Amino acid sequence: MFNPVPVSVCMPIYNGALYIRDAIQSIFNQTVIPQEIIVSDSGSSDGSENIVREEAQRSKLKVIILPAKTPGMVANWNSTIRAASGKYIKFLFQDDLLHSNCLEEMVKVAESDKRIGLVFSPRDLLVEPSVEEDLMTQWLVQHPNLSAAFGNLETNQAGSLLLRSSKLLQGPLNKIGEPTAVLVRTDLFHRVGLFNENMRQLVDMEMWVRLMASSHVGYIPKALSSVRFHAGQATNRHRTEEIDRFERDRLQDTLRTLAIYPLLHWRVKCALRFAQLRRNRFCVKKKLRSLADQSRQPPVSAPEGGPDPLIPPDSLHSVGSHGSAEYVAIGEEFFRYFIDVCELKPDDRVLDVGSGTGRMARPLTRYLKGGSYEGIDIVARSVQWCQRTYASRYPNFRFHFADIYNKVYNPDGKHKASEYRLPFETSSFDFVFLTSVFTHMLPQDMEHYLSEVVRVLKSSNRCLITYFLINPAAWKLINEGASYHSFKYELPGCRTEFADTPEAVVAYNESTVRGLYAKYRLNITEPVLYGTWCKRKDGLSWQDMIIATKPADCV
After folding, report:
1. Buried-exposed string 271-308: b where 16+ CB fall within 10 A, e elsewhere
2. Helix 324-336 crosses helix 266-293 at what angle (to 10 degrees)?
3. Most confident of 104-113, 158-167, 192-201, 493-502
């Protein structure tokens, strides 16, 4: 064997008697000698610590068993880190195994560049027969390479490059692996802190994020450890849909810190903004209910000296809001989406297709100082009211009437939506949005409007459009009777709630919509932001939202 390498093998244990002897032996069988083995017992009742002592007596390696019993899984991890004196820390959990060349290979990479603070490799899976049918286990077996989303990894790369991945928040969230698959330079824990003891399921990935932001990352493209899955343990080690909301929030909070957020891909930043909006949505719902209770009282958000002149009379409220309170709340909700997610700038030129009575225009008046707003709608009296109300107060806000036929909203319209050309120059807007428009349009009309959006939108700029999107998840909720809409009538290219007036509520297959975006070269910002209309538990707004960008080479 070679001279000892400066590695503290950290082994937190708790009731691991079944496999712990094999784990210890995998350390003893290394091609290099670790500086020390640190064992911390969290209060085992099955003799785990005695097994460690027996194995230690048979070996000449330095084995330190910490005297204190540390309650709590993650606190036990941290106890081993505090006791470690080696230059590097190599974790080994009691159920797992290190391949014989693990320490030698990982230390070799770590020592090749002093900037490397974390080294990881793939790992083999040891699946016990008792959990072979477990859905999470099956998924892991089918997706053994957790780091695939990072693309082709080098032996050495800046951790910031990995954090820049557009797929950072896509599954699997933990793209590095379990602690058993990782070697960490000890002094990095002094810089970034220990594992978050308030977490359990995503605690390792939250740490890897902090380490990636602070150092280079080494990668070895072959398995150097084996991670075991057995009854009563596999579902606790990995979860996807069942990951506690609290855990996701803590991971996202770490990604939002000043040291990490600037390093992230813009799509990840977008997802974080929407996640924050989802976290706030419970408060928004409470506020909305409160405002709705007050909707028969004088208009909300009224400035001192009188009612808000930008809130229309109740007789004009139509699509998507019922009364002044909800009118204001929904407008303010989308105002935050425009700024926080679509990155709307104060000097942007904005087009609102389906502007109604100015529900979205109202909050924009306090933001578009150097920019302008154009609203267009097919309901004449709504447009007329907006023209009278905004003209003298906000000359950069203009409203237009489009005399387009719609069976519900403009049955006497002169023009077909499928033939109508928006009265604006090509590539003239920085941001275009349509809320509750395509949910009232049939396929031919909707596709033509989408092509017009692409025409008037400037290259490299964004649009936001809301839909009712049918996909397997939504269809399952519909079939279960959970959804607010059934969309039971199928028409060519879409579904509707009412056979006699299909334009009243229209839904599209998500695959159909994605196909149209590809056809007109709109790049969808993933993920699609699904709504709560079908009682989806993690929905953001009411309708589904798609944000997309017109490519730079699309004119």
Report:
1. bbbbbbbbeebeebeeebeebbeebeeebbbeeeeeee
2. 170
3. 104-113
* H or E element that contains 460: strand 457-467
Amino acid of residue 123: R
Q: How many CA atoms within 13 Å lie on the side-chain side of 91?
A: 24
Interval 385-394 mean pLDDT = 94
CA–CA distance, 534 with 203 (Å, rounded to integer): 32
CA–CA gap between residue 547 and residue 527 (Å, rounded): 9
Predicted local confidence at residue 301, as pLDDT: 41
Enter the pTM of the model: 0.58
Confidence of residue 324 (pLDDT cuts 50, 70, 90): confident
Alpha-helix residue ranges (DSSP H) falling in 154-215: 159-163, 186-192, 203-212
34-41/469-470 β-pairing: unpaired
**Predicted pLDDT of residue 418:** 93
Pull the structure tokens for residue 396.
Answer: 């950069």
Task: Give CA–CA dist 32/111, Å, rounded.
Answer: 15
Tokens, residue 454? 């692409």
Chain position carrying tokens 């939504």: 474
DSSP letter at 408 equals T
Residue 165 makes CB contacts below 8 A (sequence gap 6+) with 149, 150, 151, 175, 265, 268
pLDDT at 135 over 90: no
**pLDDT of amino acid 281:** 56
* Exposure letters 238-249 (e unless 16+ CB within 10 A, then b): bbeeeeeeebbe
> CA 549, 551, 553 angle in degrees (round to 5)?
160
Strand partners, 401: 377
> What are phi and psi for residue 339, nearest 5 degrees?
-85, -50
Locate 461 and state its tokens: 């700029």
Rounded CA separation 134/141 (Å): 11
Nearest to 402 by CA among 434, 450, 354: 354
Predicted pLDDT of residue 424: 97
Taking alpha carbons only, the member of 64, 5, 67 closest to residue 30 is 5
CA nearest neighbour of 360 among 327, 389, 387, 400: 327
Residues with Cβ within 8 Å of residue 261, at least 6 apart in sequence? 255, 269, 272
Instruction: Give, as one character, the DSSP assignment of residue 262.
Output: G
Query: What number is the average pLDDT over the span 122-126?
Result: 91
Taking only the tens place, the pLDDT of each residue in 148-207 is 888 889 999 999 999 999 889 887 888 999 999 999 999 999 999 999 998 888 899 999
Q: CA geometry: angle at 338 spanning 333 and 341, to 5°?
A: 100
Tens of pLDDT along 276-318?
Answer: 766 665 444 444 444 444 433 333 343 444 578 999 887 776 5
Set out the domains of the chain in order of their start, with CATH numbers: 5-246 (3.90.550.10), 266-549 (3.40.50.150)
